[in-house]
Amino acid sequence: MTQESIIWEAFIIQVISILGFIVAIIVLLRQTKALKYERRISKFALDPDIEDEESLFDKLFYKGWQILRKISAILKKSVFLSRYAERYERYITFEEKDFKDEVDFVSFKIILVIIIEILYLFTLMFQYAHFNIYTAIIAASLAFFLPDAYWSFQFNKKCKLVEDDLLKAVIIMNNAFKSGSNVTQAVEIVKQELDGPIRDEFKKIYIDINYGLSLEVVFKRFYERVKLEDAQYITSSLSLLNKTGGNIVKVFSMIEKSFFDKKKLRNELNSLTASSVFVFRMLVLLPFLFSLVIFILNPEYFLPLFENKIGMLILGIIILLYSMYIVVIKRLLKVKL
What we know:
Elements lengths: L2 H40 L13 H20 L3 H7 L17 H25 L5 H46 L4 H11 L3 H14 L4 H12 L2 H16 L3 H50 L6 H4 L1 H25 L4
């Protein structure tokens, strides 16, 4: 067997292993989402007389979840890790608070780093290659920080949905005030009428109000969770209302009119900049596609970039310039209302 055939076999095994790992992660995420929906539906469903036997995947999932929770219990003893995990609290929805903790995110990242390092050592065995500390550090760093990018993307997607539905919530609250309802009743109507992430946020607002917090503090906490300018506008308006007094119906009528005009203008801007955004995304994606094609055709093509200091320097400059390009173009395309 020639050296080239050995390299190709190792490369195929490595690709299959990575694809298998990615598929496992996707299935795990889908299973987590299915369990979340199951918990919602189970409140309104009757328990069956015959209990179905758990599948092998369910048993493995629950076993993995138990291991993750045990690791989280150990990590909670560290003050540094507990403070570091506080940034993940915003990713936990209202329904998940009973069985998920912010430290679980850190535990997941640590488990992912361990799995990636094991896969790296596994591929080295098939390639008969030497251990490279720089490659191991890069792999561990990617495994540790890439989940943050995914969670941040999901959170931004959630905030976008909240921003789209915030006008509906303000309209419902304003109509409730006009009919004589108080703030608590208006918030309760919103969380009953609307669905999606906005409902989850108004559940938290409802709990804060019942705890006795002022409207200014409640909506300030809402703004700190979603980081939306519209939420900050509501907070500022309620703060002035609390300090100077006034009619809450008129205040929310002005907020409703302002949000309606802003959403109309935003939709027009999105229509005008849609083609530019599409071109920008394609230009960002093309280098990765070309690199992937070259890597598949010739796996050794990029090796000089990792084998000496000059190659690493060139790679660092490329990444820096590419990141600057993305940041600058995004700022040029972003229009603040």
